[in-house]
Every structure is written in C-alpha cells, then in structure tokens.
Specification:
Low-confidence stretches: 1-30
Number of strands: 5
CATH class of the largest domain: Alpha Beta
Number of helices: 9
Distance between the termini: 60 Å
Shape: globular
Number of domains: 2
Oligomer: single chain
CATH superfamily of the largest domain: Glutaredoxin
Mean pLDDT: 88
Radius of gyration: 20 Å
CATH topology of the largest domain: Glutaredoxin
Strand content: 5-15%
Structural class: alpha/beta
Helix content: 40-55%
Strand order of the largest sheet: 1-3-2-4-5
Order of helices and strands: HEHEHHEHEEHHHH
C-alpha cells in the first residue's frame, strides 16, 4: 500500500472513531490500566482494582448508535467534574456493543456478550458498580435526560456506602468510638435496604398502607445515609 493509501486509511479510521463518540486518545485503546481512564480490558481492570483497592464502574454501551449512551458521554463522562472525581478513585471499563463491529475486537465482542448475560444487562446504557474484589455488585445505574456529572457522582457515592473496601478506608481514619458508630450505621443501612428489597420482591399491592410503608423505608435509608455523611 502506498503512503497515500495508508494516510487515507488512518483518516477513515479516525473519523469512524470520532463519529462513534470515541477519540483516538481514549484509554479504551491504551495498553495500561489507570484509575479514572476508560479501558476495554475487563480482566486487567479487575486485577488492577483488586491490587489498588478501587471500585469498578462497568459501562455497557452502544457507542456508535445508542442515543442515551451518547447523552451520558456528553453530559457526564466528558465533563471535567467527572474526570476529577474518577481520577485515582475508580477503575472504568467500557463494554461496547457497537453496530460497527470494527470498533471492538472479536475476542472482546464475545467476552462482552458473556458479561451481558452474567450481569443480566437488558438495555443500554447500564452502569454496574463493583467493589474492589471485582465480584461484589454494589448496584446498577442508568441514564437520565437530566443527569449531570455531579448527580451521577452522587449516585455512585451512595452505592459506595455499601463497599467493604471503602468502609475500611473510612474506619481507618476514625477514632475507635466513631469507627464503632460508623460500622453500626452501615449495618443498619444494609439491613434496611435488604428489608426493602425483600418487601418489593413480593410485589405488594398498591394502597395507602403499603405506600406509607414504602415511604418509611425510604426515610430510614435517607437518615442512615445522612448520618454516614457526618463521619466524612
């Protein structure tokens, strides 16, 4: 191939990546794993997270066709506020399902399909937050028209309240008495959340009594979260 042909190929490839919402500088295509930078290497990312004791954000996306994915990329992940938050704080993994199959290697595409089944992902985008062990699912998040970097960070932070790794980091900074109180509040939050989840799984009838019960659960959860913030 001539030099002219090579240059043309590079331009076409670059254009495809940009149109798909991905730039050539994105860490999805970099060799190393760095906190706060996107990677497609799921296995390496989990090993890095375990070593560095960092939570993981899995981004199930359709980068070149999913309008909600592009909205979240523009309003959340492309913002400086998100970059500043995630830097040295989270491991970010892109699990892409593009229509342009050249954007993802066949190996990664097959792996992504397996992970989609494993995590029960039914739509895009889906964001799954894992604890640093790479196994414990702290929660799932989705897209929203009004979401911003700030609001998404708050959602992530609420899930990290259940992270044993993050709990231990906080406990290490507290006095024995405060650490005991913090742990007790965390356990209360976990218990209340579990009770709410179990109750919702029974598909309770929608009536005034159950609506009040639901609101009581939410109030108790909000109170525990507020108490935990006082330790920060």
């Amino acid at each position: 191939m001539s030099k002219k042909g090579v240059r043309a190929g590079i331009v076409v490839a670059a254009a495809a990546l940009v149109l798909g919402g991905i730039s050539l500088t994105d860490s999805a295509f970099s060799q190393g794993i760095k906190a706060g930078e996107w990677t497609m290497d799921y296995d390496a990312a989990l090993k890095f997270a375990q070593k560095e004791k960092l939570p993981v954000l899995l981004n199930f996306t359709g980068s070149d066709w999913c309008s909600w994915c592009k909205l979240m990329q523009r309003n959340v992940f492309a913002q400086d506020k998100w970059a500043q938050y995630a830097q040295n704080r989270m491991v970010l993994v892109t699990l892409d399902f593009p229509r342009n199959k050249s954007l993802v290697s066949p190996e990664y595409a097959a792996r992504n399909n397996r992970l989609q089944q494993q995590y029960g992902v039914q739509g895009y985008p889906t964001y799954i937050v894992l604890d640093s062990d790479g196994k414990t699912i702290l929660g799932k998040l989705g897209a929203g028209r009004e979401k911003t970097a700030e609001s998404f960070i708050r959602e992530v932070e609420e899930l990290l309240l259940f992270s044993e790794t993050e709990i231990q980091k906080t406990l290490s900074k507290l006095s024995p008495d405060k650490a005991k109180a913090y742990r007790a509040t965390v356990e209360q939050l976990k218990t209340t959340q579990s009770e709410l989840d179990r109750w919702l799984s029974t598909q309770p009838v929608r009536n005034e009594e159950n609506l009040q019960k639901y609101n009581n659960f939410l109030a108790a959860i909000a109170k525990s979260k507020e108490q935990l913030q006082q330790f920060k």
